[in-house]
Amino acid sequence: MEIRDLTIFVTVARTGSITKAAGQLGYVQSNVTARIQHLEASLGTVLFHRHPRGVSPTATGEVFLRYAERILHLCEEAEQAVRDNSSPSGPLRIGAMETTAAIRLPAILSEYHKLYSKVQISLLTGPTEHLVEKTLNFEIEGAFVAGPVHHPLLTDEATIQEELVLVSKPGDDNILDPKELSSRNLVVFREGCSYRKRLEQWLDAHGIGHRTVVELGSVDGILGCVAAGLGISLVPRSIIRNEQHDLSVHELPDGYGKVPTVFIRRKDAFLSPALAKFIAVVRKHVEADRA
Hints:
GO terms for molecular function: DNA-binding transcription factor activity; transcription cis-regulatory region binding. The protein has 291 residues and is of the alpha/beta class. The protein is 46% helix and 22% strand. Strands 3, 4, 5, 6, 9, 10 and 11 form a 7-stranded mixed sheet that branches.
């Protein structure tokens, strides 16, 4: 079993396509197919279901995928551990909620790049549940998510307190009246977004079970649609200060308006010099916000 074969297997599993995996890896499709067949023959099992839409891991393939990801991650850790750590370099893969990426990260990333220009940062944005899964699967080294996060394999490094507010179209004065809310659309991110979950919990507490959801993929899109009267949403107050949309802003009662944003990473993962320096810059900004 070769590391190259494990890399091909994981890429095929993640993309769900031999063709896409070949494109990402820079291989011809026939070579990827041959290496997967060789791996299956050496293991004596079928790793993928083949279907018209592409491929998907079998039950055995799912088990092997977890081990393959861990092996590849350990190989990467080993390389990082023996490098000269005096000046961080190489890739740093992190994740963040869309709102955090818009509000908090520009200043953090700008300072970090000035200090450690040899580090190549890649940022994945998405909802909390998605980012937690990516961190657990070693696909990113850490992520800014809505806390608290309770998982035996994760630790959090910094906490940013966010105040969540309900936003609606201009001129809405009685928006917090349950009767008024029952007729409004929810303009939110897809399932897995912690702010959406909290909004739904608040509505449930007021007996508002039936609602129409409009899912969008960006903060600017959500705020623009809310300002145009499409519906309501729940967002950090700090994002309102950074946007130009005309909105009505309403504070949430009953303790629903406060939520911590934490930076999570795996406890058992190697803390690379690039990630260690990044966490130090994050802590500096968090302390400055609290001062």
